[in-house]
Specification:
The structure holds 2 protein chains of 2 kinds. By secondary structure, chain A is an alpha+beta fold. Chain A contains 6 helices and 3 strands, in the order ααβββαααα. Chain A is globular, with a radius of gyration of 15 Å. Chain B has 2 domains: about 140 residues, Alpha-Beta Complex (Aspartate Aminotransferase, domain 1), CATH 3.90.1150; about 260 residues, Aspartate Aminotransferase, domain 2 (3-Layer(aba) Sandwich), CATH 3.40.640.10. Classes of the chains: A alpha+beta, B alpha/beta.
Chain lengths: ~160, ~425
Amino acid sequence: MSQAMEQLYQQLILDHAKHPHGKGLAEPGTAESHQVNPTCGDEVTLRVHLDGDTLGKVSWDGQGCSISQASLSVMSGLVEGQPVARAEELGETFRALMHSRGAGLDEDLEDELGDATAFTGVAQFPARVKCALLGWAALRDALAQAGVANKEEDR
Amino acid sequence: MTTAALSAGELAAVRADFPLLGRTLRGGRRLVYLDSAATSQKPDVVIDAELEFYTQRNAAVHRGAHQLAEEATEAYEQARAQVAAFVGVAADEIVWTAGATAGMNLLTYAMSNASLGRGGAAARRLALGPGDEIVVTEAEHHANLVPWQELCARTGATLRWIGVSDEGRLRLDQLADVVGERTRVVAVSHASNVTGAITDVPTVVAAAHEVGALAVLDACQSVPHLPVDLPALGVDVAVFSGHKMLGPTGVGALWARREILEAMPPVTTGGSMVEVVTMESATYAPPPLRFEAGTQMVAQAVGMGAAARYLQDLGMDAVAEHEAQLTRALLDAVARVPGVRVIGPTDPVDRLAVVSFVVDGVHAHDVGQVLDDAGVAVRVGHHCAQPLHRRFGIAATARASASVYTTLEDVEAFGAALADVRPFFGLGGAA
């Protein structure tokens, strides 16, 4: 396998894809989003529970490739228990990482993303960036529906 | 192997005609192009025909009296004749379109306009309303499904369909129940872009004609790979694309029997499709020009003509025989890898070299990524046939598809890369 492939399919990603966190929908919460990737038919339904301005349980169900499943899993762990504004910030940082063409971000920013930096290699494969962003798109949409999204960052 | 197939020397010569096949990929890997059902590569004669048109003949066609305009018009009409000859029809029954999708939309909007009373008495046979039915199949590409859904929504007609068997063949036994007195159109693909199954067109046509319905064929996947004589198949209308038959993108053809073409009201209106225009109204040119408003994709049409000629010179019997070997090789290659399941017939009879499959425990996107890493280009996703994938309870498949320039070595390289997929994701070689 090429080096790019090893960077794409890091062990952490394969592990998350195999044992995803947050998979299986919890009871209906504050808001829900259904997202599809029309090019491959992948789908996800994501539910968020909010406790004031803080994200409680994040659960999801869907089907997709290892990149989309692992990204949903990592994201759920990352944003649960975080203030909404913080979750949105992480989303923006992750989107920036995905559009870095594999160059990565400043070390400080990457540190904030924790396990999600494992997806740096995905950015070298433009066709797969959408896979990694599917879950984050669902989170942004769910927060917008819950009416707690920061409108200025909503783009 | 019969004598009709391409010899090793002939196949090498064919490959030498396709400049792109000579390029290498990241890391210097050889390109193994198995995505011809999505779009084919182009031979020099097609590229040169477009280049020659632009460098020697470019001018507006069917207008202007200067020499260039005459030569451009001649090239455009000669290409029409070449495409017509390729599918066994008369040149004036071929309408240039932007592709098969555009062709299907031309037909359905012409019927829509007929339903609104446009086209006068002659168009009445194409008018639809509540109570009328259109029949398609569960195997259709979205291009032969969504335009009919929309036509039904506009006219009040009802869409019905026949199913697909577990083996991926059309359930033609259901035609007797689904096609009836109310059926006005039966539209099927000649070959599925997912399962590769070739439709028994005469049986479909017989069912349609028995009730006076129009038989419509999506011939996109068949004309690049099989000898196709549209009148002999008995259909009334057919569409196909240039880019899947070694021709350029942005061009395709709609063929219809002359009396149907004459009955069709225009869809896209404007310049060069008219006879007399006053401030109040217009009269329209006879087909095919009636359907070719505005400046057309002339260079692409010339390229599509060159593609038709190229395939005809190779001989479609030889092309079909060569690809029949590839069908068997692809099915064998997939069957050898544990944990891989074909979506479509595993029997090579009446089947194109289009093999869609799922790999146990690995999503199609991930399968495609591993194959790409080995230089093997396949399509992943639903291939614009969501209902068919839903029929099999899956969202996506990977698809390997061949064309005349595909070799047994390509299939071997594909098989070797496919064997690496499950181990790469930590799954056993055995299912």
